[in-house]
Design brief:
Largest interface: A-B, 20 and 27 residues
Strand order of the largest sheet of chain A: 3-2-1-6-8-9-10
Oligomer: heterodimer
Structural class of chain A: alpha/beta
Number of helices of chain B: 6
Number of strands of chain B: 0
Radius of gyration of chain B: 24 Å
Helix content of chain A: 40-55%
Shape of chain B: rod-shaped
Distance between the termini of chain A: 32 Å
Number of strands of chain A: 17
Largest sheet of chain A: 7 strands, parallel
Number of helices of chain A: 15
Radius of gyration of chain A: 23 Å
């Protein structure tokens, strides 16, 4: 099948949507499909050879923060050329309700179009204002996919209609078979806990973990906390005092190193406080065999099977987090660490079965089913003649 | 204001109204086209499901096999039976279609109820393919029906608009209808 994927965000900035599109593209290419990804990028930005650069992304204030957008006649011309050259059977755009390359491509294209909604926190006021503007474009979408129940609910509430839930994918075996790293391996006396996420984004929950660290150390003095992520965490970690010695900042790591970290540690902790629609890192940690402790956000509870495959604690509750960690780490003596080890093994055993649901082998198959369904009874993807209005001609 | 001024305003209003009407008509036409495509896709998937059921029916014991084959052939012929007047709109949903498809869903549900037996069929090279094709066809029926009903909902929303009704932009096109059938997969086929 000839598949065109449109990525709204720059490939040189790490992010969940970009990783999802990259992995989907590589999986489909590996299975003999012809895939091209259109993404915002400068001509001199190095990108994989299946990525087509759509022009530079310009920072623009939008919805209370700064969005990096690709727009204007140059981008429009590039999208048109990409559509014409690609001669796609299916066009798959991601996150079409943000002002981005995706929305531009949606406006310019016609034919079998699939759209994936990733976010669960659309601002409803902005959406209400934009609804009449977006509706004609939204009506071109033949099939809507949401990456989680939460994202689906957002689609139903803000756009009406429905969406099929197909989760984000993970290459489960890459994590399950990652090499362990001696420095990160936990021992009975010195168990290890991993945190992954930007340090200066409170939503990722580092302050909650920081508040739990001293409580954990009271009962389990040997515990080590390995923090992976970019950003400035000084403000959060300064308050730790003597407990700061137990926290090791690893900075940013490569994908391979991240897999090794999750494979090596005893526990992965996700103290996020909100705004998560899926929780891909949880699935990665589950794949790698780390026991997961996470805040009980809806998306996390669903990934963890309501506590079957990991421990949930109330959002923002550092004391509950500390209790959960101590139960899974032990108190440094042999007896309690054996009990803790058994508790972890039981969680990991259930989790490693549950994560198969998120393996790319299966997720991509479900996406392909959607492609096949919309292809039937429709033409090929082409340029929408209505986008050649007076205004757009004048712009060119 | 001079007469010319009034004429100019009237002309401007007429132009805007004309543009809006043609824009709405184009949008409605597009939505009707989309509904036709999604309906064609759904019909094709329903036929695939029935055909796959016939294949599976031949692998089972004669009682179950006959039950499935019967339901599948009814579903297959529901599209052709009672061939109505040639001017029947392809988008209408005759009640016997939903009924026949529901019966097929129920038959599949009953026949493939025993997950141990299904797992055994999935394990044998001769039968695994037929089961996999059926599971895939059932999944695609679910997808196609959801996409179709979404398209219908969008078309209906535009059809309800005052402008569309007053200016009769829909012409004689009948109101598109959602298709309500039970398309739940037999539990043994869910992956």
């Amino acid at each position: 099948m000839r598949i065109g994927l449109v990525c709204p965000y720059s490939f040189d900035v790490p992010g969940g949507v970009q990783f999802h599109i990259r992995d989907l593209a590589e999986h489909l290419l590996g299975h003999g499909h012809k895939v091209s990804v259109l993404a915002p990028a400068d001509d001199d930005t190095p990108v994989p050879d299946y990525v087509e650069a759509a022009g530079r992304a310009v920072p623009v204030p939008y919805n209370g923060s700064v969005a990096r957008l690709t727009f204007g006649p140059v981008s429009a011309a590039r999208v048109r050329r990409w559509l014409a050259d690609g001669d796609f059977d299916v066009l798959h755009i991601h996150e079409p309700v943000t002002p981005s390359l995706s929305l531009l491509a949606l406006w310019l294209a016609t034919g079998p179009i699939v759209a994936t909604f990733h976010t669960a926190n659309l601002r409803s006021r902005a959406m209400q204002a934009a609804r009449p503007l977006l509706r004609p474009s939204m009506e071109k979408i033949s099939a809507r996919i949401a990456v989680s129940e939460d994202a689906r609910r957002t689609v139903v509430e803000h756009l009406g209609g429905d969406a099929v839930v197909i989760p984000n994918g993970v290459f489960v075996d890459r994590f399950a078979q990652a090499p362990t790293h001696q420095a990160w391996l936990g021992t009975a006396q010195r168990p290890t806990v991993a945190f992954v996420g930007r340090l200066d984004e409170p939503r990722k929950g580092l302050p909650v973990l920081a508040a739990a660290v001293p409580r954990v150390l009271e009962q389990c003095p040997g515990a080590r906390f390995l923090v992976l992520g970019r950003g400035d965490g000084d403000g959060v970690l300064d308050g730790l005092g003597p407990a700061a010695g137990a926290v090791e900042l690893l900075g940013s790591l490569t994908d391979g190193e991240k897999a090794s970290l999750l494979r090596s540690v005893d526990v992965y902790v996700a103290p996020h406080t909100g705004g998560e629609s899926f929780g891909i890192v949880l699935v990665e940690a589950m794949s790698a065999g780390a026991a997961v402790v996470a805040s009980d956000l809806g998306a996390f509870a669903r990934v963890l099977g309501d506590g079957e495959c990991g421990v949930l604690f109330p959002v923002g509750d550092a004391a509950a987090l500390a209790d959960a960690l101590v139960r899974l780490l032990g108190a440094g003596d042999d007896a309690s660490s054996t009990v803790a080890g058994e508790a972890r093994a039981a969680l990991v055993e259930r989790a490693s079965r549950a994560v198969r649901r998120y393996d790319w082998g299966r997720v991509a198959q479900e996406v392909l089913e959607v492609y096949e369904t919309v292809r039937l009874g429709a033409d090929r993807v082409g340029e929408d003649p209505r986008s050649r209005t007076l205004i757009s001609r004048w712009l060119e | 204001m001079s007469a010319t001024g009034w004429w100019l305003i009237a002309l401007a209003v007429a132009l805007v109204l004309g543009w809006y009407l043609s824009y709405s008509a184009g949008r409605l036409d597009r939505l009707h086209h989309k509904v036709e495509s999604s309906r064609a896709a759904l019909d094709a998937q329903l036929v695939r499901r029935a055909a796959a059921t016939v294949e599976v029916a031949q692998l089972l014991d004669p009682v179950t096999g006959l039950l499935l084959a019967d339901a599948a052939s009814r579903a297959l012929s529901a599209g052709e039976e009672d061939q109505p007047a040639p001017d029947r709109d392809p988008l209408t949903v005759p009640p016997y279609l939903e009924e026949a498809e529901n019966d097929l869903s129920r038959a599949l549900y009953l026949a493939l109820d025993d997950s141990a037996a299904v797992t055994e069929l999935q394990g044998q090279p001769l039968t695994a393919d037929a089961i996999a094709v059926l599971a895939q066809a059932c999944t695609r029926v679910q997808l196609a029906r959801r996409f179709h009903n979404d398209a219908v909902a969008q078309a209906l929303r535009v059809r309800r608009k005052r402008v569309v009704r007053w200016a009769r932009l829909a012409g004689h096109a009948p109101l598109p209808q959602m298709i309500e059938i039970d398309d739940a997969l037999p539990p043994a086929l869910t992956r």
